[in-house]
Each structure stands twice: as C-alpha cells, then as structure tokens.
Design brief:
mainly alpha; two-stranded antiparallel sheet
C-alpha cells in the first residue's frame, strides 16, 4: 500500500509504524557503516540514503497528507539539482569540488544519490525546527523556524561531508581554510550549505503551509527525529571511535549543544 493511499485512509496503526520501521532500519544500517569497507561500505552508503529519503517522504505523507509528501520529493530534488549543478559549474556557493565516478549515474553532473541525500536531511531538519520554535511569537515563528531548520541542515553536513570525502565520494580543489580539526572541507562549503538551507527551508515552509491537510500532524515526529539524532550524534561517535575523524566528531557535538539546550529548557518548562 502506498503512502498516498495510507494517508487517504487516515493513517491506520500499521501505517503509523512504517516511519519507525524505516528509522530503525536506517539506524541499524548506519551502525554497519564504520564496520564495513570497500564495495560493501558503498552499498551501505546507498542503503542509508535510500532509507532516509524514503523515511522523509513517507513521514511527510502520513503526517501532513499525500500532497505534502509528493511535493516534498519534487521540491527537494529540483532544489538539490539546481544548487549542485551550479556549484559544480561555477564553484558557487560551496567552493570548487568534483564527484567521483563511484556514485554512479548523474544528471547535469549531479549523481542521483545527492538529491536523495538532501531529501534525507531536509525533512527531519524542518520537523525539528518546527518543534524548537513552537513557543516563538506568532509573528516571528516562521522566520525562526526557517533559520533553525537551515542551522540543523548545515550542521548535519558538517558531520557528513568529511566522512564522504574520506570515502572518496567527492573532493575539494581548495579545502583550506576549513573549520579547526577539519582539513578536507573548506569553510565555503559551510557558507554554501547555510545559504542553500535558508532557500530550501523557506520553500519547504511555504510548501507545507499550502499543501498540508488541516489540523495538527496525523502522526508524531519520533521517526525523523530519531534518524536525525542518530545520523548526527551517532555519526559523531563513529567518527571519533572508528573512522579517525575526531574534528568532525567534536564539531557535530558542539553544533548539537544549542539544540539540546533548547529541548531541555522546553522539557523543564512543561514540567512546571
């Protein structure tokens, strides 16, 4: 049964479990990444991205309606291809980089895996931002939500990019200067992800406002938040313990601290 049909039927109990099953499979596959090598690791990478992108579309469809799920897929794919194609051709906004052939078929020079990776990252980032900004003033809530989502989106990449460079999936022509402890990815990449994140999240916020079914989300946010939490903090653990990337591990934890503090403050306020 497709996510669209499930959403029209009001998300029965079995359907509500599907995002959690996908998130669980994603976590288990991510655990396998540092334990694998060679072509097996490439297969694990593809599996992670496919599971993550599927989780995003399914959760969006079940929580906000089939229109939102379908529109999310189209919006993120087109935005990713546009930014990445321009980046490859001009070096803006990320800096000069190139993809390796191991990522397979491309469109405008962009491997098919890349828009799926954006999709995997985009929806959980927006969902977390929505949760973080619920108590913001109504007049400022949308701007705060977009800024928070772009921050989470870019922070996720701070952990992910050094791992992908290490795997040989892409390389930078001029990796310096970079964040302290990360010598393979330039600061221009972070600036580019912040810009791309702001554009994408502004579009995504508008998309949800115009396509979502009326009322609150039909299912909870546990699945995408679990995926996001594991891929950032769990990724930081893998970087420090198995992959020999202590710099990106430290930055992943540091960038997560503001989010964790906001969540802690909100949890404390609810208990009072």
């Amino acid at each position: 049964m497709t996510a669209a049909v499930i959403a029209r039927q009001g998300s029965p109990t079995a359907a509500r479990a599907l995002p959690l099953l996908l998130a669980g499979a994603l976590v288990l596959t991510a655990i396998a990444y540092p334990l694998s090598s060679g072509s097996a690791r490439d297969t694990v990478s593809w599996t992670i991205v496919v599971l993550g992108s599927l989780l995003s579309v399914v959760h969006a469809a079940l929580s906000r309606g089939a229109r939102t799920g379908a529109a999310l897929l189209v919006l993120v794919t087109l935005t990713a291809i546009a930014f990445e194609a321009v980046g490859l051709a001009t070096g803006f906004p990320y800096g000069s980089y190139r993809y390796s052939d191991v990522l397979g078929p491309t469109l405008l020079g962009v491997p098919f895996l890349v828009p799926l990776a954006w999709l995997m990252m985009a929806w959980p980032s927006w969902v977390l931002a929505e949760h973080l900004t619920r108590t913001a003033r109504p007049g400022r809530r949308r701007a705060a939500r977009i800024a928070a989502a772009a921050y989470v989106f870019a922070g996720w990449d701070v952990v992910l990019d050094p791992q992908m460079v290490q795997a040989g999936y892409w390389t930078w022509a001029h990796p310096d200067p970079g964040l302290p402890g990360i010598d393979t990815v330039p600061l221009t990449n972070l600036a580019g992800w912040l810009l791309a994140g702001l554009v994408l999240m502004a579009l995504l916020d508008l998309l949800v406002a115009r396509t979502a079914v009326p009322g609150p989300p039909r299912i909870g946010a546990t699945a995408p938040l679990l995926a996001l939490g594991w891929m950032t903090l769990g990724g930081a653990l893998a970087h420090s313990g198995w992959l020999g990337l202590p710099g990106s591990a430290a930055w992943g934890v540091a960038l997560a601290v503001p989010v964790l503090l906001v969540l802690a403050v909100r949890a404390t306020a609810r208990r009072r």
